[in-house]
Every structure is written in structure tokens, then in C-alpha cells.
Amino acid sequence: MYRIGIDLGGTNIAVGLVNDETFEIVKKKSTPTLADREGEEIVEDMARLCHEICDELGININDLAGIGVASPGIVNPNTGIVKRASNLKFFYFPLAEMLADKLGVKHVPIYTENDANAAAWGEACAGACRGSSTSAMITLGTGVGSGIIINDRILSGSNYAEGELGHMVIEFGGIPCSCGRRGCWESYSSATALIRMTKEKIEECKAAGRYTSMMKAEKINGRTACDNMRAGDEAATEVYNKYINYLACGINNIINIFQPEVIAIGGGISGEGQSLIDALTPIVDANMYCGDKARTRLKIATLGNDAGIIGAAMLRTGLRS
Ligand SMILES: [Zn+2]
Questions:
Q1: Which of 48, 182, 204, 317 has a CA 20 to 30 Å removed from the CA of 30?
Q2: Measured in angstroms, how far is the CA atom of residue 143 from the centroid of ligand 1?
Q3: From the CB of residue 91, how many other CB atoms can be counted at a distance below 10 Å?
Q4: Bridge partner list, 81
Q5: pLDDT tens readout for residues 31-67
Q6: Stated pTM of the model
Q7: Cα–ligand 1 centroid distance for 298 (angstroms)
């Protein structure tokens, strides 16, 4: 059977037709979100792309097994209403109902979910967490996004705002966060945080008259410290180790809270691949409360930018091993 997954981002609306046996995205289309416009226009574009994909493949849209939308913000999957999404004009927005209306479908179920939760569901169905009934996915990007799967279900929380692991405090009284607290994990473990630490170290070296090859970087990004560390630069190694320790601290907190079978790491920093896992593992192992062999495995997420589409398409289907 075929399903459609829609990944609504702040920049692009990505729509994909997914084979729900193989999890393959058969066809994908996208269009700019243009986040400043009214929600109704965004939904019209979603519906248009769904119809275009089905028409081009000769599929009757009414034959789809389901259509799922991954949306930013606080999403109630039972009502299909987005309570709010900070980067879109969504405020108690009836996303599922409006999409059904614009699509003109009657019997195709339409599901909605928070985007980070949908990505975690995608990894649980078809990616790094496949075969595990309890898992977490963290995305290390501008912030730290996250989704939690417990006993084959997305953990939503009583108010559907659950899964904000990036906002657990790991440094009391630490760096101010956009959420209003201080010392949140995402202020130390996002790509943004790594860039900040890199810049701080370069300034520290300059002030101390110490050379670091990071000074030669034209633009500081999330790879600057990693690349220079691999080239043997001492200051870069210090930045990377500090970052890894903060990242590991939050990972140990997650493990201590609910002992997932797998934690998948996605986002820009996960491009470091196995070396990131290898750096984290000894620290996480040394600090694990339950240090037996059935320990939580750390993995790099495998679906990349497709996790949202696949996760949205597969909403309300069961996990398969
Ligand atoms: Zn915060």
C-alpha cells in the first residue's frame, strides 16, 4: 500500500509517496513554505503536491492507506489541531480538517504529529531504531530536537508538548536559553553551541598568544573543531572533548530516565558518523547507572532529511521488527 508523508518545515514543504512495505519514498516533491503567509495557503500547497504526485504516478488519491503531516509546534494528534508553531502563523490551527477539505478526500485517514516526534517515529519504523520498541532520537542542529518512542508508541505527554529533551537543564544557572531557563542541554550540545565554543576557544587562544589552526578557518561552523581536531590541533581537541562531554551528560540523563534500547543521533553534527559514537560511548558507559550488557545502544540516524516524510507517512501503523 502507499501512504503520503508531508514534512512541513520552516523553509520547505516536502511531500513524499511512501511504499509502506519497503519504506521507500517512491516520489517526492517540495515547495517553499513561505512561513509568513496564512496557514490556509500552506495547506493548499500541501494538497496540490499530493495530487500532483498521485496524478503523475497514476494513483487514485482515495486509494491511499493514509496521509500524515509532520508539523512544527504543539500538535494534538487526536484532533489534528496545531495549538501553536512559533515560526508559522498557526494558532489553534485545524490542520488535519483543512487538509482533508483541500484534498477533497473522504475516506483516507489524515494524521498529524509534531515534526521531531514524526522523525523519531520514522527512525523507529525504518531507520536506526528499527526493531526496538523503546527508543529516542535526538537531532543536533540549530537546537536539539527530540522524540521518544515507548512501547511502540510516540510519547506525547498530557498536553502534546512532550519530548523536549533539549530543554533539560544540565548546568544550573548556565547559559540563558530561548525557553526562558538557563543551562538547557541544547545550549551546550547543539551545532550552535559547538560553533560558540569554537569561537570562544579561538578568542581564548588569541588572548593567550597560543596558536590554533582553527584561526585559519574562513568561516566557523560545526565542522571547524572536528576537522582541526582530526588534523591534530590541540585547542580543537579541547573544544571537541568539552562538547562531547556535554552531549554525553544529556544522553546519560535520557538513559537514566527511561532506558531506551537505542538512541539515534541525527542532524548536522551526526555527519561525523561513527567517530562521534566512538567518542561518546566510553563516557556514556562510564556514567551509566545500569551498566550491564543490555545497555542502550547509540547509533547515527540513517534516514537523514527523509525521516520526517517516512515518519509522517507511517503514523498510526505498528512497528515491525
Ligand atoms: Zn531551554
A1: 317
A2: 9
A3: 11
A4: 76, 94
A5: 999 999 999 999 999 999 999 999 999 999 999 999 9
A6: 0.94
A7: 24
